[in-house]
Amino acid sequence: xxxxxxxxxxxxxxxxxxxxxxxxxxxxxxxxxxxxxxxxxxxxxxxxxxxxxxxxxxxxxxxxxxxxxxxxxxxxxxxxxxxxxxxxxxxxxxxxxxxxxxxxxxxxxxxxxxxxxxxxxxxxxxxxxxxxxxxxxxxxxxxxxxxxxxxxxxxxxxx
Length: 159
Hints:
single chain, 159 residues
């Protein structure tokens, strides 16, 4: 399993948007530049986050993006779902069936239950972490660098 970089970029974009004052927005181009993301690809990610009701898009010359929900109400899992969708990480391809020459009705995949349990555990970890909890951790561990990022946000934001 390999998660696409879009999930990572989206989580950090939301963390940046978390730093905005209430009535401010941040242009998507500025966020993509800060994250080192392709502007075209990043616009697709932002559209997915808007569709998932995690962020809001404000059109116009003074437009940009801002959070639609409170940071404590945005779980990392919500971001994952917005970018990756609901599909399961594992899908049996019938190797056991072919290996043992089983009849269709006798076939099961020994890995299915194991993978479902692992996926459930992984999801529960992502569900317990929120944008607020991640921001708190960044504030605690990287305060001087966070202040520089906050200054950048103030410089790039649009009121």
